[in-house]
TrEMBL record:
Residues 506-646 form the Cytochrome oxidase subunit II copper A binding domain. Residues 1-24 form the signal peptide. One of its GO terms (molecular function) is nitrous-oxide reductase activity. Keywords: Copper, Heme, Iron, Metal-binding, Oxidoreductase, Periplasm, Signal. It comes from Sulfurospirillum halorespirans DSM 13726. This is Nitrous-oxide reductase NosZ. The lineage of its organism: Bacteria, Pseudomonadati, Campylobacterota, Epsilonproteobacteria, Campylobacterales. The keyword Heme applies. The chain holds residues 1 to 646 of 867 of the full protein. It is found in: Periplasm.
Length: 646
């Protein structure tokens, strides 16, 4: 696949070939004809060739994009920018049976908040699991800003396996980020709120409202968050924001931005200026710097924690007393904070400031060691002097938001929201190197494994919030625009646009496809959500219907081109459970299953068991059938549910 791609590039990049060669698809002068007919320049053709995958050729990288308000994850290939899959995460998704079969309902149910069903999510930050600060291709996590939750996706089958609800936050944004060996996940709150579940008047903001960072313990072997071993660092109500975990030299530390050092709480009732001005009055906000490793040790002693909603919270004074929590001023209303591949530099973007600020971890450590503090905040947290903690600052343009690193020492790419640009600069020498226009209003940007200790270079994807005129008009709600940029040369070159038709995708993480090894089938009889053999596993010849009182259990098999049994007769009011085992071993021979009018659907991949459950409360005759076009006799793959009044 690699070879094919290289061959193609060398073929098309040769400009003599471009103008003179005959192309198999068209014959003499075909390329010229196509270029003329479609109004393409030579540069256009080269760009097209850089992203074109002939049929059967795979992509070098896979990108995992947040699905924004869809609550899902999108997967696409780079450089082809071909959409490969949606992964159902926080929102029911019928194709995958997510929320329509029993196995996936159990996953979605983990995301209930205080007993309340939450059937959407506002996904922002996906993160790939790491070993030694490098992407290892095992797990993907993603946060939900609106309902503070984190989901774990297994990259062996691209299915969501776990959802955890933050027990103390009411919203969150600074998640989710793995530490360098995926033993912890950082999740920072966003809008400050009381940690308990009670009403507290807004006048008590400074006393009762809190921000924080939850450190979720993660088991990288089994891919599950361990809620009991997790803890939260209590923080002031400064509206915490994006975060990043230290790596290498800064391993053990975490960094979290904030944008409301004013502790402004809204002014409608008391005649204060509107929100924006209120939260941006001060010239600086605070970068929170915390030693989560030390705090994890402290949290083991019950004397050091407050238990809130059954969850351990380390109070600010305990963190301060143990030299584990510090603040550093940063230009007001910052946005991204990104630790460089060595762990020494922490780059914070200004958003309302035209600068990026490069903090030095070793300078921060020296200030901490010497207790060289510039003062304390109202909560007694030591403040480090900004100038002394900075390696330097550089003016980049209007609205710097997020950063990505490259394999070249000191090279960094930053998104400029207001200027609609990606700027390449050097964070060590503090020099701007290049900039390219994007379309339009870029938020995050994604390099190839760029947030790890092993960035690959090659491409940057600009995640643009607005597409305006880039695509056919499909009504007032536009798709967003992911633009692929070639960064392999001195000058960045914009290659192609890709519309994202599923919510606002805040962030993307990427990985070399060679690091992923997803399976093509399950061990026969597997409940894919638990990875255990299902109680409903049914082999050929074992199909049966069991009745106990009003409970009817159907043990069914699916194989081209039969659903066995072909007739299920029940009484009105019976509780019906249908276990389906897909007996296929062939790759991509998925069968779907639905019972008409009963709002159930399952996707049953080879080897999988999926279960649908319903009360037979509608009397009548209901066809059930396979919903995937699986063979020439697909339409014949059906049966009848007979519901009679006894
Ligand atoms: S955020 Cu949307 S552009 Cu939620 Cu990471 Cu910056
Ligand atoms: Cu099985 Cu269609």
């Amino acid at each position: 696949m690699e070879r094919g791609f290289k061959l193609l590039s060398s073929l098309v990049l040769s400009s003599t070939l471009l103008t003179t060669a005959s192309i198999a698809a068209g014959g003499d002068g075909a390329l010229d004809k196509v270029m003329k007919a479609r109004g393409l320049s030579e540069a256009d053709v080269v760009r097209a060739a850089k992203t074109y995958n002939p049929t059967g050729v795979h992509d070098k990288y896979l990108a995992f994009s947040s699905g924004g308000q869809s609550g899902q994850v999108l997967v696409y290939g780079v450089p082809s920018m071909r959409l490969l899959k949606y992964i159902a995460v926080f929102t029911p998704e019928p194709w995958q049976g997510y929320g329509f079969d029993e196995e996936s309902k159990k996953v979605l149910d983990q995301g209930k908040i205080r007993g309340k069903d939450i059937t959407w999510g506002d996904t922002h930050h996906p993160a790939l699991s790491e070993t030694d600060a490098k992407a290892d291709g095992k797990w993907l996590i993603i946060n939900d800003k609106a309902n503070p939750r984190i989901a774990v996706i297994d990259l062996s089958d691209f299915e969501t396996k776990q959802i955890v609800v933050n027990p103390v936050f009411k919203s969150e944004h600074g998640g989710s980020f793995f530490t360098q060996d995926s033993e912890w996940i950082i999740e920072a709150a966003q809008y400050a709120a009381p940690f308990d579940n009670n009403y507290h008047p807004i006048e008590d903001y400074k006393e009762s409202y809190r921000g924080g960072v939850t450190m979720w313990k993660f088991d990288p072997k089994h891919g599950r968050i361990q809620e009991k071993d997790s803890y939260t660092i209590e923080l002031p109500p400064y509206m915490q924001d994006l975060s990043d975990a230290g790596k290498k030299v800064s391993h053990g530390w975490g960094f979290t931005n904030s944008f409301n050092s004013e502790m402004y709480t809204g002014g409608i009732e008391v005649g204060m200026p509107p929100n924006e001005a209120g939260m941006s009055r001060n010239d600086t906000d605070y970068l929170h710097v915390y030693n989560w490793k030390k705090l994890a040790e402290l949290a083991k002693d019950p004397k050091n924690v407050k238990v809130i909603n059954g969850h351990r919270v380390v109070p600010m004074d305990i963190a301060v007393k143990n030299d584990a929590l510090f603040l550093i001023p940063e230009p007001k209303s910052p946005h991204g904070v990104d630790v460089d591949p060595t762990g020494e530099y922490i780059v914070v973007c200004g958003k309302l400031d035209t600068h990026a600020s490069v903090y030095s971890f070793s300078k921060i450590q020296t200030l901490i060691k010497n207790k060289d503090y510039a003062g304390t905040d109202p909560y007694g947290i030591p403040i480090l002097d900004m100038k002394k903690a900075l390696h330097g600052q550089l003016e980049l343009g209007l609205g710097p938001l997020h950063n990505q690193y490259s394999p070249i020492d000191g090279e960094i790419y930053t998104s400029l929201y207001v200027d609609s640009q990606v700027v390449k600069w050097n964070f060590k020498t503090l020099k701007v190197l290049d900039r390219v226009n994007v379309h339009y209003n870029i938020g995050h940007l994604a390099g190839m494994e760029s947030n790890t200790a092993d960035p690959q270079g090659e491409y940057i994807i600009a995640l643009n919030k607005l597409s305006i005129d880039r695509f056919n008009n499909v009504g007032p709600l536009h798709p967003q625009n992911h633009q692929l940029i070639d960064i392999s040369g001195n000058k960045m070159d914009l290659l192609v646009d890709m519309p994202i038709p599923l919510g606002e995708p805040h962030d993307v993480v990427t990985i070399r496809a060679s690091k992923l090894h997803p399976k093509v089938r399950y061990e026969m009889g597997t409940n894919s959500r638990t990875e255990q053999i299902s109680e409903g596993k049914t082999l050929a010849g074992q199909e049966r219907i069991e009745r106990k009182g009003n409970d009817v259990k159907v043990y069914a098999t699916l194989v081209r081109s039969h659903i066995n049994p072909e007739r299920i007769t029940v009484n009105k009011g019976d509780n019906v459970t249908i276990y389906m085992t897909n007996l296929e071993r062939a790759e991509d021979e998925t069968h779907g299953f639905t019972v008409d009018n009963y709002n159930v659907h399952a996707s049953v991949e080879p080897g999988k068991v999926a279960t649908v459950k319903f009360k037979a409360d509608l009397e009548g005759v209901f066809p059930y059938y396979c919903t995937e076009f699986c063979s020439a006799l697909h339409l014949e793959m059906m049966g009848y549910l007979m519901v009679k009044d006894p």
